[in-house]
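Hello again, I could really use a second opinion on something today. I've been staring at a protein lately and its backbone has me curious. Please have a think about how the structure follows from the sequence. I owe you a coffee for this, so here goes:
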Amino acid sequence: MRSLGKLIQIEARLFLRDPMTFIVGLLLPTVVLIGLGAVPALRERSEDIGGQRFIDYFAPSTIVMAVGVIGLTNLPVVLATYREQGVLRRMRATPVAPAQLLLAQLVVNIVASLASALLVIASGRIVYGVPLPQHPLGFLIAFLLGITAVFALGMLVAAVAPTARAATGLSTILFMAAMFFGGVYLPRFMLPDAVANIGAFVPPGVQSLLDAWTGTAPAAIPLVAMAATAIAAGAVAARVFKWE
């Protein structure tokens, strides 16, 4: 347990010392939300989105970004790099098991995603008065299932990618898909209905987050889909993951 704690400290320092990881992973979603809110028209209520302000409607999409940028880009690339550089192989000759490094990476990246999401919620509330999630329990369940599904997919990429370059390519495709269906590139009310419906089932499940944010209990089927994705991707990743 002591060695795991030390590993978590080391991995956390490495995460924070990387300027791109720190800025993009932790700060970019908040910067996007604050930047959009600086446009006066986006702080006005619109009938196109049920009388909400765009800045309120878009907040869950920045949560999608906060989770995706770390779980789908940072985590798999770091683990693939460790494998490619022989870090995991060399750890087998030490008292620290490679699985502990894997767990340390998961802890650091999940905490970073949580911090990024909380920063989005807090900054939106303080700067623009964005309402807090109106269905807290539903939001918590949707967020936890969504982040678990995203990180399971990230681990699957890390498991199958032979090199860091391959991991970057695969994770970029998944990240762009998550951002598109999550309403980051184009607001969900502007997407075709079929695309928006698909987005409800693409991790981390932006529709469930949006429903809970506005006070509606998330639908059960998308939540079940998030859980099934997490279980399936996690099981496959555990089975095919190679330490060298």
In short: The chain has one domain: 2-240. Residues 13 and 92 are 23 Å apart (CA to CA). The chain has a mean pLDDT of 88. The two ends are 24 Å apart (CA to CA).
